[in-house]
Design brief:
Elements (H helix, E strand, L loop, with lengths): L2 H8 L1 H9 L4 H6 L10 H14 L20 H12 L8 E5 L2 H14 L7 H17 L10 E6 L4 E6 L2 E9 L33 H13 L3 E6 L7 E15 L8 H8 L5 E9 L2 H8 L4 E9 L5 H10 L3 E6 L12 E13 L4 E8 L5 H6 L5 E2 L2 H5 L3 E11 L8
Parallel strand pairs: 1-2, 6-13
Antiparallel strand pairs: 2-3, 4-6, 4-7, 5-6, 8-11, 8-13, 9-10, 9-12, 10-11
The structure holds zinc ion (2 copies).
One zinc ion (ZN) binds next to loops.
Length: 414
């Protein structure tokens, strides 16, 4: 005797009880859907009714079925609706999901509890699978369970389909050549994005940003909904990002086109002279956390003005004295309103100086992530110690600050 038949005989009371509820063959079979392989719930139901009738139990299905209300008659319609939506979007794979009427889910739970079959499959799982089986011929893309790019969610009440499209993530490096744009969209302080007199109706504090210069192009190319920018740290608005640039990940939500041409994106974004982008490549969602979690050392170039003439040798001496020095930095006055007031220990790796005028010199310096460079130079009224001004004996102020490099090695990709 095969496994299925013997299992039903062992659970004959549950099978009889469920059949007497008037379940259709498919629903009756589904109540034992995890028993046996190489069959369908419909065939399981037919076999259960045969086993019951051999024992003189005659319990025909009701019409409509009290559980599924014959919803499976509409599989073609559901599959058509899903295919229409999915085919409108570019993806390498898809998955079908269903939203089952709450009353049907409640009835299913009640039947299982009252009759106690122990190996039932849910109606939701069967709908997902059966709609998928029909839809795959109309969609011509493989089904992906783990990381589907598109999920078509079928609401069985109205044969209504909503799409859940996974975002795309594009990594690269950016340079910022303007001291007037921020890294990311900066919503207006007054209206928080709605548009007001202060922001001239734009809803933001700055007309554009490193994010928008590339994000707007990527959004247009991918027919996406919104862009998000994840930088590996950020520089001040008035600082440029030079050298090899800063690593970032651009996220595009609900892209209707995924395989966009990154060379074209790079070219179009680089038409702006405010920022530049390079080394664009697609990455997985995990890259965002990796980028956000790294705090690499950075190299800066600062143009410094001293309050008085400086001696070239002395400036060089002071610069060299900061090789591998740890400093205490109390939260700078300028960011005090948004950061906790703490004293942080930061490392200065090395400093090089070049005097360019009587009271002007350039410092190139490598520091641990999170070091406030302007305050290291000025001393921030004693809040950073030791600091460059005290060591030189002349008060110095950073006039311009540029980031020369972010010392981050992209993990090798295979
Ligand atoms: Zn049914
Ligand atoms: Zn505003």
């Amino acid at each position: 005797m095969d496994e299925f038949r013997s299992n039903i005989i062992d659970n004959i009371d549950a099978a009889a009880g469920l059949a007497r509820e008037g379940l259709c063959d498919r629903c009756l079979g589904r109540m034992f859907g995890k028993v046996g392989t190489g069959t369908t719930n419909n065939l399981r139901g037919i076999e259960i009714r045969e086993i019951l009738s051999e024992r003189g139990i005659d319990a025909p299905p009701a019409d409509p079925c009290p559980l599924c209300e014959n919803v499976f008659d509409l599989l073609d319609r559901f599959a058509d609706a899903a295919a229409e939506k999915v085919n409108d979007v570019e993806s390498d794979n898809f998955l079908i999901g269903t939203r089952v009427e709450p009353e049907i889910a409640a009835k299913e739970k009640d039947l299982v509890e009252r009759h106690g079959p122990t190996s039932s499959e849910s109606i939701k799982a069967e709908l997902n699978r059966e709609i998928g089986k029909v839809a795959i011929h109309k969609i011509n893309r493989p089904v992906e369970f783990k990381n589907p790019q598109v999920v078509a969610c079928v609401d069985t009440r109205f044969a209504d389909v909503s799409l859940d499209i996974a975002p795309i993530f594009i990594a690269g490096r950016y340079n910022k050549f303007s001291r007037e744009i921020p890294q990311t969209i900066w919503p207006c302080r007054e209206c928080h994005g709605k548009g007001c007199a202060r922001c001239g109706g734009q809803g933001k504090m700055y007309s554009t940003s490193v994010q928008e210069v590339i994000g707007d192009v990527a959004l247009e190319m991918s027919h996406g909904e919104e862009h998000f920018f994840h930088g590996m740290g950020r520089e001040d608005i008035d600082a440029c990002m030079l050298g090899d640039g800063r690593p970032f990940v651009l996220e595009i939500s609900k892209p209707r086109k995924r395989g966009i041409d990154l060379d074209e994106l790079e070219k179009r974004a680089n038409a702006s002279d405010l920022a530049a982008y390079s080394a664009l490549h697609f990455v997985s969602r995990e890259a965002v956390q990796i980028y956000k979690g790294s705090d690499p050392d950075k190299t800066y170039k600062a143009r410094v003005r001293a309050q008085g003439k400086v001696n070239k040798e002395r400036v060089n001496e002071v610069a060299l004295s900061f090789k591998n020095v740890q400093i205490d930095q109390r939260t700078p006055q300028r960011v005090e309103h948004r950061r906790a007031d703490l004293v942080r220990k930061r490392g200065i790796r090395w400093v090089k100086a070049e005097v360019v005028g009587d009271d002007v010199f350039d410092l190139t310096l490598s520091t641990e992530s999170g070091t406030y460079v302007k305050e290291f130079v000025s001393g921030d009224e004693g809040r950073t110690s030791p600091n460059f001004s005290d060591a030189l004996g002349v008060r110095c102020v950073v006039e311009t600050l540029d980031v020369l490099s972010i010392d981050y090695q992209e993990p090798t990709r295979d």
